[in-house]
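Illustration 12: Trigger factor.
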Amino acid sequence: MKATWEKIEKNLGVLEVEVDADRVAAALDKAFNKVVKQVSVPGFRKGKVPRPIFEKRYGIESLYQDAIDFLLPEAYSQAVEQTDIFPVDSPDVEIDQFAKGETFKFKAKVTVKPEVTLGDYKGVEVPVSKIEVSDEELAQELERLQQRHAELVVVDEDAAQSGDTAIIDFDGSVDGVQFEGGQAEKYSLELGSNTFIPGFEDQVIGLHTGDSKDVEVTFPENYHSADLAGKQAVFKVKVHELKRKVLPELDDEFAKDVSEFDTLAEFKEDLKKQLLERKENEAKAAREGAVVEKVAENATIDIPEAMVKSEVQNMVRDFDNRLRSQGMNLEMFLGFSGQSKEDLEEQMKADAEKRVRNNLVLEQVAKAENIEVSEAEINEELQNMADAYKRSVEEIRSILESNGSFANLKEEISLRKTIALLVENSKEVEAPAAAAE
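Figure caption equivalent — predicted structure in C-alpha cell form:
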C-alpha cells in the first residue's frame, strides 16, 4: 500500500492512498459473502448463488460499496500510521478508483494535530501568597458544618421563608394544556436554591402549610424546549408541608457528634489544621495551573476547531455524569436553568480551548525534555488505583486495557511529570497585596 501526506494549509492536509489490487479482490470476496446471504435467484437456495451467476445477474459493481466499506477504514488507519500523522476529526474521503482487478485509490482531506512552537518554559514567574487560616475562615467552616448537620423541623404555623424546604404538588400548563415534566407530587423544593424557573420559588415564599396558589411564570427565551421557550405558564401549587433548618449549638456535644474530639476547642484546632492543609493543596494546584498557563501563553499554536468541539463534548459528558451522580441529568438541569444545550456548550468553549492548548503545549514540553514513563511508574499508579477501588492490580490493568484507557493512564503520568518539571523550574514572586488578601 502506498500513502502520502501533503499539507494544504495550517492543520489541514490531504492523504493520498493506493491499496493493492489483491486486497481489493479480498474485499470483494468479503462483500459477496455478505450480500449473497440476502439474494434469491430462481433455481438456487437463498444464499447459495454461485459467484459467476451473481455477477452476471447483478453486476460486479453491486459489490463495490460493501467492499469499500470493508476496506476503507482499515486502509485509512494504516495510511495514518504509515505517514505518521495525528488526525483530530473524521476525514472527508473522495474515492478516485475502485474496480475489480485494479488498485483502490482514494483521497482523505483531514485536520491533524497542530504543530506547537514553544516559547520560554523554564524560569517563568509565578505569584505566590502567604498561606494562613483566619478566624473568619474558621468560623465560616464551622457554620458550613452546622448547616450540614442541621435538623429539618416541620413548621406548622409560620409562612415559608427562603431556605425552607417546601413539600409541594405542582401541575403546570401553557394555555390550559399540560406539558411534559410539568407535574409532580410531594416534591421537595428548597426555596431560594434557584432550582426552578425564575420567579417560581419567589411566589412560594410566604405561603403556609395547606395553602394553594396559581404560580405564574414565563419560560426563558432560550429554554431548551422550543415548544415552551418564551411562553407563559401557570403552575397550580399546593403546599403539603414546610421544613426549616435548625442549626446545632457550637459546643462540646457538637464536637463529639461531628469528630473524634471531646471538646470544641480540640476540634477547632484540628479543623484549622485541615483548612491549612486544604489551602496548601489549593495553592499547589493554583501554582501548577499558573505555570502551565504562562508556558502556554508563551507558545505559538493554531488550534483546530475540531479539537475544541471534541473537548466541549467531553466536558458536557463529564458534566452530565456528575449530575447523574447527584440524582439529576443534563436534560433536567437544562430545564431547571432555562438554558439550551447550545448555550451550555458556548459557555464551555473558552475553557475547552484552554484545556486543548495546555495539553498540546505540555505534550510538546514532554518531547523537548525527553520525559518518559517507566513501567515502575505505571505499576505504582495501578497499585494506587487498586488500593482505592479495593481491586487487584491485574483487575485494574485488565479493565483499563479492555476499555481503551490504558494509554490514557500513561499520558496522565507523563503530563504530571511535565508539570512537576515546569513548577520545579519556575520562579516564585510575591503576589500583589490585593491578590494576597
